[in-house]
């Protein structure tokens, strides 16, 4: 059984499988936009589509709160491209660039990507992204 909870204080959606944390999606809300930063899925969540469920939950929340969405992580971009009904949440000037940023991440021995290992250490205080012109808002 899966459950997803939005931890507002930590700015992340957390997925549980069989009562255990199986993954998370980190986000920030700025200026009426939800920045989807990173999905981190544990091995327990890889076989049960936890990443897709996390992104789906975040997109639903953004829609409910009338927030635009900046899908800055691969999983969020892929999900939006696979489900075009969510394209309307992405600002029009960003839509053309959705498929251009497909990072190639190496898997580590833990089964997590390098980016997700960094995120697990809590490195979200000052987000600087190439899509944002390298500026932290």
TrEMBL record:
Region (Disordered): 98-137
Origin: domain of life: Bacteria
InterPro entries with a match to the protein in the record: Acyl_CoA_acyltransferase (IPR016181), GNAT_YJDJ (IPR031165)
Domain N-acetyltransferase residues, every copy: 5-91
Name the UniProt record assigns to this protein: N-acetyltransferase domain-containing protein
Organism: Arthrobacter ginkgonis
